[in-house]
Design brief:
Blueprint (H helix, E strand, L loop, with lengths): L6 H7 L9 H8 L15 H16 L5 H10 L6 H11 L35 E11 L2 E10 L5 E7 L4 H15 L5 E4 L3 H4 L1 H9 L3 E4 L9 H15 L7 H17 L11 H5 L8
Parallel strand pairs: 1-4, 4-5
Antiparallel strand pairs: 1-2, 2-3
């Protein structure tokens, strides 16, 4: 292992579950300050966590709600808070209304934004388009984030990762895992314009594979609906029925459900086939 690339690239190379090398050893070999390895979570108090848990429940049910309606729903539940606080908590959670809107989103100014390539395009084949998204997961004493890489046509989840921070590194790990575990790559990779997906760490991985990069803009705003359905399903069918106290507990529950979703859950849109049988990669999905 050599000290190569800039600091962000070296940080992305660190594997939290490496079979032989500890995180401390990897940091030393790569010249990375361990104290700066993982960004700190935004500070949240107990009341904020309760509000965020309620927000997640409302948003999972109604992802098209904006700040005003979310605040009204929270008021109905007894949380008397203002729109600024709702906006702040939504930012921590990484959520926004899934509706068509003016060009008011604010991706990271330092990152390059790529054009939207899917306008009026029918996705008819596996590996034609992959996509990725992140969702917020409430925890008893904090929160975590789940990212998934999905094949657009088959709806198969090709890889996923859990992290207690919404950094770029865990998204890049999921991307690398999808490429390695399937032995394939898409023609186009579509995401939103979030800082994780517009970062050089993420886009450089795709460029290296010769994958065209597409980012949602004013195009088909409904493109993200099916992955929102994935989030709704895993939360209602698994996470809200089981208790979990650590990221490790959460990771085990996600692994169980993803196995069920890919290999046993039949989809009407796939003529009642499963996502994995439709995708049929040469290797098994990496958990």
């Amino acid at each position: 292992m050599q000290t190569v690339g800039d600091r962000s690239e070296r940080k992305a190379m660190i594997e939290t579950r490496h079979p032989k090398l500890s995180i401390r050893k990897q940091c030393k070999m790569l010249g990375v300050n361990r104290n700066r390895l993982t960004p700190k979570q935004p500070k949240t108090n107990r009341e904020d966590l309760e509000v965020m848990k309620a927000l997640d429940s409302i948003y999972t049910e109604c992802p098209f709600y904006g700040q005003r309606k979310l605040r009204m729903e929270l008021h109905d539940l007894g949380f008397k808070i203002g729109r600024k606080r709702v906006r702040r908590l939504m930012k921590i959670m990484g959520i926004e209304a899934l509706v068509p809107k003016p060009s008011t989103s604010k991706p990271c100014k330092e990152n390059h934004i790529y054009p939207y390539l899917l306008g009026n395009r029918e996705i008819r084949e596996v590996d034609e388009v992959w996509c990725a998204d992140i969702t917020y997961i409430p925890m008893p004493k904090g929160h975590a984030y789940l990212v998934a890489i999905m094949d657009w046509h088959s709806r198969a989840v090709l890889s996923w990762e859990v992290s207690n921070t919404m950094d770029t590194g865990f998204c890049v790990r999921a991307l690398r895992k999808a490429l390695v575990s399937t032995g394939r790559k898409p023609k186009i990779f579509n995401t939103d314009q979030g800082s994780q997906f517009s970062s050089a760490e993420w886009t450089d991985e795709l460029k290296k594979e010769g994958v065209r990069i597409s980012m949602d803009g004013k195009g088909r705003w409904m493109d993200n609906v099916f992955i929102e359905r994935l989030w709704r399903s895993i939360k209602y069918e698994k996470l809200r029925l089981w208790s979990y106290h650590t990221v490790g507990d959460l990771r085990s529950l996600v692994a169980d459900w993803m196995e069920f979703y890919n290999h046993r859950r039949k989809h009407q849109s796939l003529d009642y086939a499963t996502p994995w049988s439709t995708y049929s990669p040469p290797k098994q999905m990496a958990a």
